[in-house]
Design brief:
heterotrimer, A mainly alpha, B mainly alpha, C mainly alpha, A: mainly alpha, two-stranded antiparallel sheet, 26 helices, globular, B: mainly alpha, 6 helices
Chain lengths: 648, 184, 100
């Protein structure tokens, strides 16, 4: 059953939406803009659902659809537009189009009063287009196109309110930091091409499979380069600095791009190229270290943030660290599982936070919130679901995926695995702590800003919240136990359930205990909070509030020297020396040569005559020189003619 | 005979040309030029161009040089003055002339099969000349008459009283330096 | 039995003497006379070649050269008269209004 699944329509429908809204949107009425913007993801989701239905019915995977014309044909490089659907990309597409569609609906309510309504939706559709291309790509280059494209869409959407300097700066920061990662990715692509002669992923996998003893060496280098790209896109150490700043964008954007989909592209990429990483234990170790370190690092910073969206941002960085950790211990399916549940509960967290902010008229500081559980019940209940899910308390979704990761780390086989497990466990405690801190500060206690007249949001915004809440509850049940088997053909044999049941129960119990402990700590400190920060007296608090001064360090070490050098180069070298010098030089040449030539125009008849004679001499010499060989010939020629005429 | 005639008149030609260069007063130069032209007329005869020899005397020596002499006398051009001179003329000009002479001489001397001139060579009759002139080259001939007309007009227009500096309008007989005498 | 090259050499010598005169003479009229000398030298070479090739067109060319020289002399001398009226001098070095 290999019927045409119309894969190419999945990216193209959002692209069409982008074009229509982008070009005509300013002139269309709002309802038309919304309709166009909603039809695209809905249609894409329908196509993906259709594909999923076919797969469930037994369609063969991977299903490739390639365009008949190729893209690049240069020497040994052959790249074409091929879209590949397999289990992994199917899961990703369901998340992207499904959650994306819900967030589109939410945005209709959230952005309703914004002047750039049409622009927002065109950018959002553009993002969907690039993300689907990234996921469906059959070769690394096409994936890179999607990779860059989502970076562009992210820049456009973060800086959506571009008149605000902080938003514009945040957009630039995101794009530039992403670019640094992309540089690593590009080097990786070049190395891949050099090693394998092809960029099509199936061909690379086949070539690797034909050579089972090939490990380490150049493959490690390739994997590290790809990892650099992934850290940039997925906001891991040391390239995570853009994600907290990206909260300047509208909240639905944070939900879609910086929680559910774009930042997961790095994890997807590692899972997609797992056959390379499997050959390099060193690279896998680095991935795991990066993931674990980031998870812990970001969790500590998230503990002391006062802006509700910043807490969620650092939480995202931390959870992405978990996914990287999973990939680092070669439990790719566990990482993807967590990606899916994370999309549900983190998306929900952001959307609910957006609802809170919207209801409070723009207030984002948690110290001024409180007591909202009465005023915004639906938001309250859905957010509670999400908080419990992310804390990792069963039966909510987060428990299953986080547990899978922790167990995979513990049973990895080396001592490093146990360390990773412990770091993961401690981070789970911190996660639970700061999420419940957020929950208490925002919803419980007495209202600290009654003058803001908090009100519940409209059902366009609440509907998606409810759907995501249900998914946060049931998502884990969907995947537990079956995820690894489902993704097996793509990802490899190391699956989630590989240890003894006793160990399983012990580890799960410890995880739950950590989560509950975190809740208890938050309960004690924040239940009756009047706005003071109880953690302020803890040593190291200043370090945390200043986010370990990472931004300042980057600024001093990298940004400032670069800016100074660039300014110097521009103002002095280019402007002054090169351009100014060139202009001055031209003028000077003209003046100088003019001064010399001026002497020639003496008005003196005799010198003119002399120059005439010189010219004549030169011409004669030239004629003599060029006709040198023919001189005697000329003489004879003259003689012949002479003789011809003699008889006349 | 031929050789004697040639040497004599060629020598006269060159000597007169040198005299033209060396004399200070323009009238002497003009008269030397007349000598050059006359000897050239003889040389034309030696080459068999009888009409041209006559034309050379009548037109060149008889009309053009007379015109030159008239102008010299009209303008009362005196002895040449010592003027600034031109360094460029000395430094560049003479070597250039030397080069030109050398190149042409080389070409002439290197050329082979040029032939000789002797007194028994056929003379070009005026009939031959006019045959070509008035039949084949009639148009250029007529054009030259127009040219002469234009030259006449131009000369009249340029040399008319009133041309040149207004103050010198009636200074047809001006001094060499063109100074106005007091009271005129 | 004079070789033709002698006539040609003579013509070259006259021509170059004309250039020398152009270069060293300081009176405008004398300069003009040197130009006439150059023309005469060229005329001689034309006639020589006409003799050599037995082609009467060389002589016709001399004819035309004479016509043009006559016209040129007339106009040139008229110009010299005008210059003398304007500048009051016939010294070549004094007539330098074209100087930059």
């Amino acid at each position: 059953m290999n019927e045409h699944l119309y894969l190419w329509l999945i990216p193209l429908l959002p692209f069409a939406g982008f074009l229509i809204n982008g070009i005509l949107g300013a002139r269309l009425p709002k309802w038309l803009v919304s309709t166009v913007a909603l039809v695209a993801p809905a249609a894409s989701f329908a196509l993906v659902a259709n594909a999923a239905w076919n797969v469930a019915g037994g369609a063969a995977l991977p299903h490739t659809e390639a365009a008949s014309y190729s893209w690049i044909n240069a020497g040994m490089l052959h790249v074409d537009f091929s879209l590949v659907l397999d289990q992994l990309s199917l899961i990703m597409l369901l998340i992207i189009t499904g959650v994306g569609f819900l967030i589109h609906i939410y945005s209709v309510g959230y952005m309703h009063d914004d002047r750039g309504y049409w622009r927002y939706f065109s950018y959002l559709n553009l993002f969907l287009f690039f993300m689907t291309v990234l996921v469906l790509a059959g070769n690394v280059l096409l994936m890179f196109v999607g990779w860059e494209g989502v970076g562009l869409a992210s820049y456009l959407l973060i800086g959506f309110w571009f008149q605000k300097t902080s938003a514009a700066d945040a957009g630039k920061k995101a794009f530039i930091v992403n670019r640094i990662g992309d540089f690593g990715f590009l080097i990786g692509i070049f190395l891949l091409l050099g090693q394998f002669g092809t960029l099509t992923m199936s061909e690379i996998a086949t070539k690797l499979a034909a050579n089972p003893a090939w490990t380490g060496g150049i493959l490690t280098t390739i994997c590290i380069c790809l990892l650099v790209g992934a850290t940039g896109k997925s906001a891991q150490l040391p390239l995570y600095v853009w994600l907290p700043d990206a909260m300047e964008g509208p909240t639905p954007v944070s939900a879609l791009i910086h929680a559910a989909t774009m930042v997961t592209a790095g994890v997807y990429m590692i899972a997609r190229t797992h056959f390379l990483f499997d050959r390099s234990p060193l690279a896998l170790l680095v991935v795991a270290i990066v993931g674990a370190a980031t998870a812990l690092f970001a969790a500590t910073i998230g503990m002391v943030q006062t802006d509700i969206k910043r807490v969620l941002a650092y939480s995202t960085v931390s959870q992405l660290g978990y996914m990287f950790l999973a990939c680092g211990v070669a439990a790719y399916s566990a990482g993807i599982f967590h990606l899916m549940t994370h999309a549900f509960f983190k998306g929900l967290l952001f959307l609910a936070a957006g609802s809170v902010i919207h209801g409070l008229g723009g207030e984002q500081d948690m110290r001024r919130m409180g007591g909202l559980w009465k005023k915004m019940p639906v938001t309250f209940w859905t957010m509670t679901f999400a908080v419990i899910a992310i804390a990792g308390i069963p039966p909510f979704a987060g428990f299953f995926s986080k547990d899978a990761i922790l167990m995979a780390a513990f049973t990895q086989g080396t001592a490093a695995g146990k360390v990773f497990w412990f770091v993961g466990l401690f981070t789970a405690l911190l996660t639970s702590f700061y999420m419940f801190r957020l929950w208490y500060l925002t919803f419980m206690g007495k209202p600290r800003s009654p003058e803001l007249h908090a009100h519940e949001s409209s059902w366009t915004m609440l509907g998606p919240l409810v759907v995501l809440a249900l998914l946060s509850l049931g998502g884990g049940w969907m995947g537990a136990g079956r995820f690894g088997a489902f993704l097996g053909p793509v990802i490899g044999k190391k699956t989630v359930e590989a240890a003894s049941t006793n160990l399983e129960w012990t580890l799960s119990g410890l995880a739950i205990a950590a989560a509950v402990l975190g809740w208890l700590m938050a309960h004690m400190l924040y239940r009756r909070n009047e706005g003071r920060e109880p953690l302020a007296s803890v040593p190291g608090y200043t370090v945390l509030t200043h986010k370990y001064w990472v931004d300042e360090v980057y600024g001093a070490l990298i940004v400032k020297p670069l800016l100074t050098a660039s300014r110097f180069l521009l103002e002095w070298v280019v402007e002054f020396a090169i351009l100014g010098g060139a202009a001055w030089l031209l003028g000077a040449i003209m003046t100088f040569s003019g001064a010399i030539l001026q002497k020639w125009q003496s008005g003196n008849l005799r010198s003119y005559a002399a120059w005439l004679a010189v010219g004549a001499a030169v011409l004669l010499l030239f004629a003599l020189a060029t006709a040198n060989g023919m001189l005697t010939h000329v003489g004879m020629h003259i003689g012949n003619l002479h003789m011809n005429w003699a008889g006349h | 005979m031929h050789l004697v005639l040639f040497i004599l008149f060629a020598g006269l030609c060159v000597a007169a040309a040198l005299n033209l260069l060396l004399q200070k007063h323009p009238i002497n130069s003009a008269l030397s030029l007349v000598v050059v032209m006359s000897s050239l007329a003889v040389l034309y005869l030696l080459l068999g161009a009888e009409f041209l020899a006559a034309a050379q005397i009548i037109v060149y020596a008889g009309a053009i040089m007379v015109l030159f002499t008239f102008v010299v006398m009209l303008l009362n051009a005196g002895r040449e003055e010592r003027t600034l001179g031109s360094r460029a003329a000395a430094v560049l000009g003479f070597p250039a002339v030397a080069v030109v002479l050398a190149v042409i001489a080389t070409v002439i001397l290197k050329a082979q099969g040029l032939g000789t001139v002797s007194l028994s060579d056929p003379i070009t009759s005026t009939a031959d000349l006019s045959r070509v002139l008035f039949r084949d080259l009639l148009l250029p001939f007529e054009v030259t008459s127009v040219l002469i007309l234009i030259a006449i007009l131009g000369a009249v227009a340029l040399a008319r009283a009133g041309n040149g500096h207004p103050a010198k309008r009636d200074a047809l007989v001006g001094t060499a330096r063109g100074e106005r005498t007091v009271g005129k | 039995m004079i070789p033709i090259s002698w006539y040609l050499l003579l013509s070259a010598v006259l021509f170059c003497l004309g250039i020398v005169g152009f270069l060293i003479k300081r009176n405008l009229i004398t300069v003009f006379m040197s130009i006439e000398l150059m023309l005469n030298g060229v005329n001689l070479s034309f006639v020589t070649f006409a003799h050599m090739w037995h082609n009467v067109q060389g002589q016709i060319f001399v004819f035309f050269v004479m016509v043009v020289a006559a016209a040129e002399a007339a106009v040139g001398l008229a110009i010299i008269i005008a210059i003398f009226r304007a500048r009051g001098t016939l010294a070549v070095d004094r007539i330098d209004l074209m100087k930059l």
